[in-house]
Amino acid sequence: MYIIRKGKTMKKIVINEDNIEKEKVEDIVIRVKALMINEKKELLVVHNNYTYQFPGGHWRSYESLEDSLTREIKEETGINCTIDFGPFMVIEEYYKNYLHTGKSRCNKIYYYVVHSNDGPRVEEMNLSELERKTDFNLFYIPQKDMEQFIKESMENKSIENVIGKEMLAVMKEYREKHAKR
Question: Which of 1, 53, 58, 84 has a CA-to-CA distance to 127 between 20 and 30 Å?
Answer without folding.
Answer: 84
